[in-house]
């Protein structure tokens, strides 16, 4: 129970810091580096808390569900190691003592690409793990099921609009080498848009997990029917 509470606290802290990390110029480069360092430390702690997953990688049989989830986790692991490395190479405040010559331009493009794909993958990853808690909430608190589902759906729909408004596709597919920030708008609007996008991709993660679970159940049912 204690380990679950620690893991949950780490995950909540990472979730809270993620939209702040995406603000970059809006919060200042030094604060961005501080938050980036904090997120990386939390990421390391997250993997220490979930070390049983690493030990089980080469054990047991890989179903489609397990293979997809493992591939997603490993891809996210690579991104969240490469992303801070590229960020350190660009550092102007905390890590100025690590400044290899002649790589800043390449590192900037790589860091931008990793940042946005890491953002998307983290949200999908979180969504795949929200399916079980959501099912428990659905069973135990039926009176709030409809308003929670409606609110999440509305925010996710707005997340589709915010995804386009913030030009995230351009950053994900390197159609833009620089991120545009509107310094005239209230910071709150930026964070609300990114939170809505986070909820959108978390919902996609839940759909992915639900689909994999359904396929796994159907396959197991067919196998049991053949045995009978």
| Unreliable stretches covering 5 or more consecutive residues | none
| Radius of gyration, taken over Cα atoms and rounded to an integer in Å | 20 Å
How much helicity do the residues have? over 70%
What structural class do helix, strand and pairing data support?
mainly alpha
Kindly describe this structure:
With 228 residues, this protein is mainly α. It has one domain. The protein has 8 helices and no strands. Helix 1 (2-23) runs antiparallel to helix 2. The longest helix is centred in the last third of the chain and has 41 residues, at 187-227. The protein is globular. The N and C termini lie far apart (40 Å).
List keywords for this structure.
8 helices, mainly alpha
How do you describe this structure in short?
The chain is mainly alpha-helical and 228 residues long. The chain is built from eight helices and no strands.
Give the topology.
Blueprint (H helix, E strand, L loop, with lengths): L1 H22 L5 H21 L1 H5 L8 H27 L13 H37 L1 H24 L2 H5 L14 H41 L1
Helix pairs in contact: 1-2, 1-8, 2-4, 4-5, 4-8, 5-8, 6-8
């Amino acid at each position: 129970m204690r380990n679950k509470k620690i893991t949950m606290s780490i995950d909540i802290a990472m979730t809270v810091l993620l939209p702040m990390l995406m603000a970059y110029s809006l919060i200042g480069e030094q604060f961005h580096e501080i938050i980036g360092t904090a997120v990386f430390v939390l990421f390391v702690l997250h993997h220490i808390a979930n070390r049983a997953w690493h030990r089980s990688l080469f054990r047991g049989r890989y179903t489609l569900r397990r293979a997809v989830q493992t591939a997603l986790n490993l891809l996210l692991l690579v991104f969240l190691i490469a992303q801070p490395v590229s960020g350190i190479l660009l550092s102007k405040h905390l890590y100025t003592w690590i400044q290899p010559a002649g790589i800043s331009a390449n590192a900037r493009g790589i860091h931008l690409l990793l940042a946005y794909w890491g953002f998307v993958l983290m949200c999908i990853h979180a969504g795949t793990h929200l399916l079980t808690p959501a099912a428990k909430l659905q069973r135990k608190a039926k009176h709030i099921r409809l308003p929670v589902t409606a609110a999440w759906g509305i925010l996710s729909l707005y997340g589709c609009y915010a995804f386009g408004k913030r030009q995230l596709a351009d950053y994900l597919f390197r159609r833009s080498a620089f991120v545009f920030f509107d310094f005239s708008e209230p910071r709150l609007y930026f964070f609300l848009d990114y939170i809505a996008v986070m909820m959108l991709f978390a919902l996609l993660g839940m759909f992915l997990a639900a689909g994999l679970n359904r396929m796994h159940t159907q396959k197991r049912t067919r196998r049991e029917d053949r045995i009978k």
